[in-house]
Amino acid sequence: MVKIALNLTAEVENIVELYTSPEYEWNLKLRCTSCNEADDKWHAINPDEEVQGKGGPGSFNFQMKCKFCSNVSTIDIVKDSIRHITAKENGMIENQTIAVFDCRGVEPVAFDPQSDWIAKSEGGYTFESVDFGDDENGDAWFGYDDLAKVSVSVADLKGSFERV
Ligand SMILES: [Zn+2]
């Protein structure tokens, strides 16, 4: 098994903290490590999901049978690995780990942040249900902090993967 961290990079305006809601599902594109083929579909990985393993003991957050080579692979989100990420004073989030995935037979190759994020502004306001929208609009979110009377945003949110 291989542990793979999802690292985020973004440019923020008047936002100090970014994290996922308890209902959040991690949307990933996956590559089979047995035949090296990448599946074109997005898969939602839910840390509360328990899928019974095929042909083996235990349960997993996610299980997939490769449509090319039929290899069965699984993913678990490492317990307590989901973190809040904080912006630096220069308004950057630079390659910060937000979650770690325990991958068997498969590796994530793309991440789509989608919705169900929570952002805290510099003025102390909490924005619930931050939505990064679909791919066509780019992964950005714009809001307005009514208390501090400033615009807030998280722009150019990008995920990358790293073996840990
Ligand atoms: Zn395969």
TrEMBL record:
<comment type="similarity">
    <text>Belongs to the UPF0587 family.</text>
</comment>
<keyword id="KW-0479">Metal-binding</keyword>
<dbReference type="Pfam" id="PF05907">
    <property type="entry name" value="CXXC_Zn-b_euk"/>
</dbReference>
<dbReference type="GO" id="GO:0008270">
    <property type="term" value="F:zinc ion binding"/>
</dbReference>
<keyword id="KW-0862">Zinc</keyword>
<dbReference type="InterPro" id="IPR008584">
    <property type="entry name" value="CXXC_Zn-binding_euk"/>
</dbReference>
<protein>
    <recommendedName>
        <fullName>DUF866 domain-containing protein</fullName>
    </recommendedName>
</protein>
